[in-house]
Amino acid sequence: MAHIRDKYTVLLCGGPRVGKTWFAKRYCSGHLTSGFEGPYYSKNVNINGHICQLVILETSYLDEGAFGGTAGTAVPDAIILMYNITDESSFLYLENYVNRIKEHWTPRLGMTLLVGSMVDLAHTSRRVRRVLPQMLSKKPRLLFYEVSSLTNHRISDVFQAIINKIATEMPPQLGIARPLTELTFTVTIIGPPGVGKTSLALQYSGDSEYFHKATVVPDIIRKTSAVDGHIFELELWDTAGQEKFQALTPSVLRKANAVVLMYSLVDRATFRQLDYFFNQVEEVAPSNLMVTAVVGNMLDKEEERCVQRREGAVYAQKHGFLFLEVSCVTTHGVNDLFEEIIRWLLCSQPFRRPSVGNAIELQDEPEPRGQEKKKRTRC
């Protein structure tokens, strides 16, 4: 049986002025104070009903001394590699760190996280494009986040991922379900152009940068999330809304575990086009599709509303779909949408973990001949 420890250590490593101290303080105390107080910070956390101490060790150098001993001893449970998105040089050091971890210092939990700080400055001062850390995080596989200590953006998500990993190493507790880990769901977002499909995916992923140009080819945006004690990686497929760019949409739909049908609350024409996109889903009819959600965007423009809430709700109820209204500007309802989709995916059993890779395989029982297809949104 696995041993329950009282203390877990996280090594927080990065160059100067990347924000390590503020990052640790924000998580441990919830507020920011001036001055360096490290290198140790700690916080008591409840993991599967067991109170543990999470110790954060801050260092600028990834060497033997960082672990308090020679290589192979006093190894941390997890490592966070931090860079500043406004300073390209802070990111260039990380490749060396990643190689040294791979060769000498694999953390106990096998968990290394890549974190870009100061995302609140992304609009005006970004120097490290998201694609660069995303590529680096694939070899070896790292979890990737962008955070802001100033606004407290996604800091709790980073440590929650570590806590969930610790929970999987513990023996199951009486009455507490052991979390599932590293499951992947694919969510395809479709709808007319200009309804906010890209903004929805970017807001949920935590990227504060917005791209106002039209989507031409499907794009993948990934986010690791924890819902009800389970860890998931969501692959969000952002598709083209303009008809001349929609040739690839059917191939993307075939991979979907869930589909978001999106329209604008301030443009009735986009609501009328839902049938067109719904028919695309029906034509492809992937066997692994479990959930479809109808989503009205631009709730922040209530005074310009053209489509009433009841109309969207009736349309969704008619087809047995989920229904939510959101704002990609204020983020209202965005997290609720994807958390609800995940919960519906969980209750759309059976699913099993594959023997290779992280993606799950969803299994449907064959339908008897002559019977209509079952609605895939029912638990």
From TrEMBL:
Domain of life where this protein originates: Eukaryota
This protein's UniProt keywords: Nucleotide-binding
Pfam annotation, one family: Ras
Keyword Transmembrane helix among UniProt keywords: no
InterPro entries: P-loop_NTPase, Small_GTP-bd, Small_GTPase
Gene3D superfamilies given in the database record: P-loop containing nucleotide triphosphate hydrolases
Region (Disordered): 358-379
GO molecular function: GTP binding; GTPase activity
Keyword Methyltransferase appears in the UniProt entry: no
Entry's family note: Belongs to the small GTPase superfamily. Rab family.
Protein name: Putative ras-related in brain
